[in-house]
Amino acid sequence: MSLSLADKDNELWMVAEGDSTIARLSDGRLFIDPATEQQTFKNLVLTLSYTYTPVTLENDQLSLTSDVEATATYKETYTLSGRGQVNITATKK
Prior knowledge:
Layout: E1 2-5, E2 11-16, E3 19-26, E4 29-32, E5 35-41, E6 44-52, E7 56-58, E8 61-74, E9 78-91
Antiparallel strand pairs: 1-2, 2-3, 3-4, 5-6, 6-8, 7-8, 8-9
């Protein structure tokens, strides 16, 4: 993960494994807007929605939790959905 200044004050680019998003800095914490992405694989449509907790920095480690909701639809007939949490920690090199 890398962080770099964005165009606006109090905003940073967060880049990890080819994905990027803008985070806003307020009161010493980073806030990330919710995001949704959709991918299509032939007859299957996968939709992923992410909601993030504020990012904290403590002892050179960034920590956040992402609530993830996934929905897969096959041939517009069958649907499977689920949700869970992903805990993310990044250590400064």
